[in-house]
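Design a sequence for this backbone.
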């Protein structure tokens, strides 16, 4: 009987093929993560002129949840701001029935590479709250997190597609910088010292995003004409998507509606 011997390099090569060793290390089996990666811009400039606009509003259906007053009694400095009527920011319905703090972005359809802004995005720990509560930042863009309060805060970023981070800002005026390498909508930021403090980051590769405020409105302008999937994401009510086709020099108006019921 003839015996065959395989060399060590050949064995290793076969193992790499069988285990998928040649796959992209950034790939993920998580279907949500795969959808996030799918929105990344290609390494080419946009082929069409950016003349289209998608805009609209995010509405809330039903009776608005009552916003609870923040219990900050464990921290004297924080408690000193109770007269400012600070309340929970997780669900904020405007007087006109629209929803605040919704991150609206183009999830699919963006083509072309868009330069990352050189100026940073800033989020502040002020009067024992993160300001703003929801913010957008580009992949590769600097995020500055600063503490303007005369007491210690903690910065805990609960990244799922990005690396988790956790550190203290012990003194007033302290700043830390973060740069995110992968898209993630949304990444929660919280303070472990003061449990009511939280914020959310929408991290994307392109500039087509907005956060709703007064009036619950958003506008995604200077788009090349094309087919897009628009997603509106809320920290409590999750995400809703709309497919939109917009032509050259055209403006499309769309509405998202959230409610307590799924």
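Sequence:
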């Amino acid at each position: 009987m003839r015996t065959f011997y395989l060399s060590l390099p050949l064995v290793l090569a076969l193992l790499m093929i069988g285990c998928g060793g040649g796959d992209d290390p950034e790939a993920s089996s998580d279907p949500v993560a795969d959808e996030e990666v799918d929105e990344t811009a290609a390494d080419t400039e946009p082929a069409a002129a950016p003349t289209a606009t998608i805009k609209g509003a995010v509405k809330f259906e039903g009776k608005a949840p009552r916003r609870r007053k923040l219990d900050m009694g464990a921290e004297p400095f924080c408690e000193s701001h109770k007269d400012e009527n600070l309340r929970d920011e997780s669900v904020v319905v405007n007087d006109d029935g629209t929803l605040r703090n919704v991150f609206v972005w183009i999830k699919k359809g963006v083509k072309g590479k868009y330069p990352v802004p050189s100026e940073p995005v800033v989020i502040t720990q002020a009067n024992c709250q993160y300001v703003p509560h929801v913010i957008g930042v580009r992949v590769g863009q600097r995020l500055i997190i600063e503490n303007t309060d005369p007491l210690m805060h903690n910065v805990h970023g609960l990244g799922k597609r990005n690396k988790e981070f956790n550190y203290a800002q012990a003194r007033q005026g302290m700043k830390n910088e973060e740069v995110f390498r992968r898209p993630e909508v949304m990444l929660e930021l919280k303070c472990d010292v003061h449990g009511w403090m939280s914020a959310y980051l929408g991290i994307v590769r392109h500039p087509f995003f907005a956060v709703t405020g007064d009036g619950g409105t958003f506008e995604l302008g200077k788009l090349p004409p094309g087919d897009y999937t628009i997603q509106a994401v809320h920290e409590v009510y999750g995400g809703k998507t709309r497919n939109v086709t917009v032509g050259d020099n055209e403006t499309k108006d769309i509405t998202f509606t959230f409610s307590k019921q799924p």
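Residues 1-40 have pLDDT under 50 and may be disordered.
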